[in-house]
Amino acid sequence: MNRVILAINAGSSSIKFQAFATEGVVGAGDNLERRVSGLLEGIGSQPRLLIKDGAGATLRNDNLSQAAAPSVEAGEGIVGDWLQSDDAARLIGGPIGAIGHRVVHGGADFSAAAQIDDAVLARITALTHLAPLHQPKNLAPILAWRQRRPDLPQIACFDTAFHRGHAEVAERFAIPEALYLEGVRRYGFHGISYEFIAEKLTEVAPAIARGRVIVAHLGNGCSLCAMQDGRSVDSTMSFTALDGIPMGTRPGAIDPGVVLYLMREKGMDAAALEKFLYHQCGLKGMSGISNDVRVLEASTEPQARLALDHFVYRIAKEIGALAAVLQGIDALVFTAGIGENGADLRARIVAASSWLGLSLDADANAARRTDLSKSATGPRVLMIPTDEELMIARHTRRVLAL
Ligand code: ADP
Fold first, then answer.
1. How does pLDDT run across 164-183, given as a tens digit for each residue?
2. How far, in Å, is the centroid of ligand 1 from the Cα of 330?
3. Are 238 and 308 in a shared domain?
4. If you count Cβ atoms within 10 Å of the first and of the last residue's Cβ in the chain, which end, N or C, has fewer?
């Protein structure tokens, strides 16, 4: 029977949701048919509900009052009500058979998506201290749908799961083992996106999919993943989503001595440091202007230029580090908001990494083609749009064998 899988991706100020019909066969290339995609963004500030049909036509674009969605939990109610409306039923065109959720932290235990029962829910909840800003937002729709539709199977898809196979040398910090054993280790995030790219590569570039690939997921959060034969070997994010390359509002890797300095000299406590490191650094903090690459590119302020220069410098530096891990690379893949749309930054990152044999075709780059490489030989430069919701739906289907 054709059943519908809902994929829900609840973030710190937005909830993305999509509905897929279960057509086709299970496997890497399985084609789920997208019926609806929705976004409730600006939660807590200027909420806006955007709903599109499977072809991408906008069906609703409603500005809501701030009071309507002051929190992700309240926003979840709005999304849940809509998904149970006649409007939604008409568009989705079949009974909802299962729900897949993005869950940021799966800790050391979850190396694959898991069906949520009481025990799994307790384990996910217990991991909240490892991702205090994100895990509660991910849990909100899980808890709400358990109340709303206890009959529906729900699947948790973890951003850490794709990275669980890292070698111990890569997974360790140089700290006493007792801390490693209690969970202080390099996990890695954006795994749902990286897994989607790994699967997509088997379709668009099968030879490369088996090789050494660095994927640059450059969105609001940014990280790099080194993959070998479709599996994650290392990643720039680690214990939390603060590590690695700079991001819109996060600094990336920073000397821990800076944190000690802020505590001693500025009197910052954990809450103040958390706010500073997650929201006031990165491109926004450095430029003093914006976290949005488009705004910085349009600015003539020297600080905007410096922030972008630093962004490119740090990414190229980490590409070099991951190339050392992989002992060379067969492809660099760009994905997510900046990676997919920022043609100028792509060109600059590739230029800064040309020592690896990477080259960019300016026309292909401007036209947003998949293969952006100039040279017919040597490592490839690719641009592949990510699709985390589709990956969540695939996992949900595979776990339940729908
Ligand atoms: P999220 O991590 O929330 O899913 P996205 O992957 O959508 O975020 O990425 C959002 C980022 O994409 C924005 O902060 C913006 O800087 C960047 N972006 C969007 N369009 C462009 C563009 N045309 N050029 C450069 N950057 C862009």
1. 999 999 999 999 999 999 99
2. 26
3. yes
4. N
